[in-house]
Design goal:
The protein contains 17 helices and eleven strands. The chain is mainly alpha-helical. Pfam families: DNA-SBD_ScoMcrA, HNH, ScoMcrA_N.
């Protein structure tokens, strides 16, 4: 065994052979299993690190490929992964790789027993490759595009040429981290994540590994595809879910970028206001939110809060990261009325979108250790907000509002007073 003699030339030859054969055939030819922890990342593709090094050894003059059980040869940090990194290749290390969600069957993808939390967990724990220390934008761009389509009620499944054309345009405009115009990569990966459904083809779905093989599979099979039905339905009908997922995708993948142009292109720019969609002429009752949805929303907010507490967004200014989902929950439970029990009267006017003029406020400022959570947030009219912020009685009012926030939060979850009757 002469691992030290392997150069980039042999590694690239092994990668080329993997692309030519396809991942599964390549692994079978050399007797390897799929990598459980270390993956080589090269030109947007993922490759099994140990198998690539083992095959590369066979391209050395007078040498044979290494078998998986060759003495002293492993795919771990001290052998294959170390060699690849020393040669300048990127190797992703995922200690949870063995726990990645398995590919779902069509029946499972359309089954109601896939819980709200399980589906969202799959989306908010995406496995993506990195380039120059940054997470790839392939999957987030695809999901934001699909979320916008669901919000507008557009067809869930599209023919592959339509999907490919739309995503190529978005990748060209917003793939600022070197993403190629290859929608096949993220679609195949999202399918194996259990988030994307593919139909109208025969045989197994290609992996997201390699290059030519992935493209060839989509070209030959032309599948119809789109979000798995339960995911689509959540994005379509649950504003809390949309906002929580939007929060997570933007805060995870776009921390140092301005996502506004992308959100505009996919039709999610208006969602940023995080207000209930009442619309002209719709009754205040439409602000009602069920205790179950409020509870689910709070769980999503709490998971994000644990990740973001104290973190600052660096897109334009160093401001605290705030949750659109939490804001939506507070506005919904307020039913369009100021939550200060001593409010002397909020403005009778409404906004252009027919919303009451309310402002969501953190009773304890985030900069002072307050939580970005409905239990410490209230909806206030401009007058009460001004008193709470700079009035002489603000400290007394804050004590009242902190109590009210807790009571309204308990009522919203169905664990306190009647959640449909505001106390103000």
């Amino acid at each position: 065994m002469a691992l030290a003699d392997i150069s980039r030339v042999e590694i690239e030859k092994a990668i080329g052979e993997c692309d030519r054969l396809g991942r599964d055939a390549f692994l079978k030819a050399y007797g390897f299993r799929r990598a459980r922890r270390y993956l080589l990342v090269h030109q947007g593709g993922h490759y099994d690190s140990k198998a690539i090094v083992g095959a590369a050894h066979g391209f050395l003059p007078g040498e044979r490929p290494l078998a998986p059980d060759s003495p002293g040869f492993s795919g771990g940090a001290k052998h294959a992964a170390r060699l690849l990194r020393r040669l300048g290749f990127e190797v992703t290390e995922d200690p949870e790789a063995s726990d990645l969600p398995r590919e779902l069957t069509h029946d499972e993808l359309t089954h109601d027993e896939l819980t709200h939390e399980e589906l969202i967990h799959r989306i908010t724990h995406l496995k993506v490759n990195r380039s120059a220390g940054h997470r790839s934008l392939y999957k987030p761009i695809v999901l934001l595009w699909a979320m916008g389509r669901a919000l507008r009620g557009e067809p869930r499944l599209l023919p592959w040429p339509e999907t490919e054309e739309a995503l190529k345009t978005l990748l060209e405009r917003h793939g600022t981290r070197g993403e190629r115009l290859r929608p096949d990569y993220p679609i195949a990966s999202l399918h194996h994540d259990g988030i994307w459904e593919l139909r109208d083809f025969t045989g197994p779905v290609t992996t997201a590994h390699g290059d030519a093989g992935v493209k060839r599979w989509f070209t030959e099979n032309q599948p119809r595809g789109g979000l798995a039905e339960p995911v689509y339905e959540l994005f379509r009908h649950s504003a809390v879910t949309r906002l929580a997922v939007l929060d997570d995708l933007l805060d995870t993948f776009f921390e140092d970028l301005d996502p506004t142009p992308l959100l505009t292109d996919v039709g999610l720019d208006d969602i940023d206001s995080a207000e209930p969609h009442t619309g002209p002429g719709r009754a205040p009752e439409e602000w009602l939110i069920t205790a179950a949805e409020y509870e689910r929303g709070c769980r999503l907010v709490e998971e994000q809060e644990a990740k973001n507490h104290g973190r600052r967004a660096a897109r334009t200014t160093h401001r605290p990261v705030r949750s659109r989902a939490a804001r939506y929950l507070v506005l919904s439970r307020s039913q369009g009325r100021c939550e200060n029990p001593d409010c002397t009267g909020q403005p009778a006017d409404v906004t252009d979108r027919n919303h009451p003029i309310l402002e969501v406020d953190h009773v304890i400022d985030l900069t002072r250790g307050g939580r970005d959570h409905p239990s410490q947030m209230v909806a206030l009219c401009p007058n009460c907000h001004a008193v709470k912020t700079r009035g002489r009685t603000r400290e007394t009012l804050r004590e009242v509002l902190l109590r009210v926030a807790g009571e309204r939060h308990a009522a919203g979850r169905g664990s306190g007073a009647d959640a449909t009757e505001p106390s103000a």
